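Subject: Interface between my chains keeps coming out wrong

I've been trying for a while to get a sensible model of this assembly. When I model each chain on its own everything looks fine, but I need the whole thing in one frame so I can look at the contacts. Pasting all components below, labels as-is. Any help appreciated, I'm running out of ideas.
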Amino acid sequence: MKIENTKAQMRKGVLEFCILSVLKDNAAYVAEILGTLKDAKLLVVEGTIYPLLTRLKNAGLLSYKWEESTSGPPRKYYELTETGKLFLKELDSTWNELQNAVNIVTSQKTKTK
Amino acid sequence: MNKTVNINLAGIFFHIDEDAYLKLQHYLEAIKRSFTNSQGQSEIIEDIEARISELFNERVQNNKQVIRIKEVDEVISIMGQPEDYLVDDEIFEDEPQSSYKKKSTTSKKLFRDTDNSYISGVSSGLAHYFGIDAIWVRLAWILLIFGAGTGFLLYILLWILVPEAKTTAEKIMMTGEPVNISNIEKKIKDGFENVTDVAKNVGESIGAAAKNVSESVSNAAKNVNVKKQSNSIKSSSKTFFDTVGDVIMFFFKIFAKFIGVLLIIIGSFALIALAVSLLSLGVADIIHIPGLDLVDIANTGNTPMWLISLLAFFAIGVPFFFLFYLGLKTLINNLKSIGKIAKFTLLGLWLISIIGLVIVGIRQASEHAFEEHFIEKTEFPITFNDTLNIKMIGNDNFNLGFHRRHNDFKLAHNENGNKVIYSSDINVIVKSTTDSIATIVIKKSADGRDYDTAIERAKNINYNFQLKNNTLILNSYLTTNPENKFSDQEVNVILYIPIHTILYFNSTTKSYLYHSRRNDNIVTNRNTNHYLKILDNDIECLDCPDGDFKIKVNTNGVKINEDGIDINDGENSLKINEDGIRVKSDEVKVNIDSNGIKIETVK
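Reply #2:
Try treating it as a single job with all components included. I did that and got this:
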């Protein structure tokens, strides 16, 4: 068991959830999603997101449409599909439960110390 | 000063320095390799290119500005190293298609492991692939090379065809571990990726430079318009037909793999067989291996054996090599192309070999173009009323029956233990003569490319006969030294027999006589075992039954044959044969035979 494995898995596990969350209310293109994730320091390099987006799209959670850009190539605007929204809802509650659980466990530990 | 290249990145036009271009290209290639097709490789690459294009666009103030290596480096640091693109599959196990995806990423791929190589890394690559220690693979190679010699060929092939594991992702794939972030990090921590890799990559980039520049120009022109259209189509969700297509593709792939295995088996067996025969023939030219002499003797053109075998090897081997290659290509997805130069070299070799073989063939044919005869004449006397018996004699050494075979040559050792060619191509011809003494003429013939060779070969035919107590004993075979090769050697024995002489041909001569009386020949193979009196250009059979009885009837109870006449209608019968006449009915029996006539009534 290496610390790197665990770290990477932790981060990657939430990444999918975070991408869906970014798109919860409005469609966004890759650079915008990236901006949000990078601001939150969830991503170090951009490359990671592309296979994830494709995977989510292929799983039917996301769809996209093309929009022209004035300053570059046309952009893919991603948005949640109906299944994506349900998926996100489910993930949301799971996350909350998880957060609670982790909070309880970790705070207990500090108390006992 | 720097040369620049024009590129089209996601439909946007950029000027880019050549070194920066190469770096970018290498980067994109490396990313491409970290994905399999099932993960949506092309779509991911498209997205990444679009993003890079955007990032470049932000860095270019006007369209005359050139992208330099600095910008490329910046973009790469933003986008991350190829390893960063990989998705840890374990996390997505519950995803619908994950089981399939997992299989495809964790399956091993064959690469050459140049980090642990002795020569080219083929062995250690194979060792990873089969999950055994490299030492066993190397031992197997040594055995193969000394055992059959084919190992060498196979090794070179694998060296050429199996790509080297360059990126970390490839190195992980090679060992069959699932490609995920943790594994990649581990490899990097282990110092797997070292300085030499970088040096190699740079070297390769320079090599590829010339090719890439020309390609980039044509690519730029192609990509601009197509992209938008195809994207709008792709954005529609997966339809029913996609699914049907997937199923069909799946079966097609299985079928293709099957064909691939078949092709590999055919190709490799043919190549191995060829290599073995080439080696043995080539060696036989220097060391004499018994049994191979036959091939050498058939080779009348005197073209060096090694040249013919080499030509034949390429003429047959090249097509089979391509079969083999095709098979490998269908089986191993990431197989490197052998390259245009190699393909054209092989094609050229093949053509040269075919032409060479045609030339050899013409030489071989011209060898038989001249037929020269060497005639040896011997006379011997026969007194007038003697009967001349004629029979053939074989030779135990040559294991021949008394059957003439045209152009059938064999090798054997004669009674002195010397190697000889023998053949049963002997013709016996009988002609009548008005001279008072009989003459036997032995006519030997052989083919040769020129007059001298032919006459030399004809002269070298050994053929013997002897006359003993009124019996002419003819050899049923001819022999010659193997040096003379198979050049259609033939012996005609012509007997000039005075009129009124009586001949008796033993049954052993049957096969050596003509079927018909052509060219003044008067004795045919139907005349054996009879006493024949020679007339002027004809014979008279002295002991043949008068008027050959040829009528044969056998219908409805009526039989007429050499035994006689037999009529039987079930109730009455009539028999006429050498015993006499016998008639039988319900009421009367009549017998006429040597005992006289006997008539008796039944009951």
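Reply #3:
Confirming on my end. Confidence is low (pLDDT under 50) at residues 90-105, 192-199, 221-238 of chain B.
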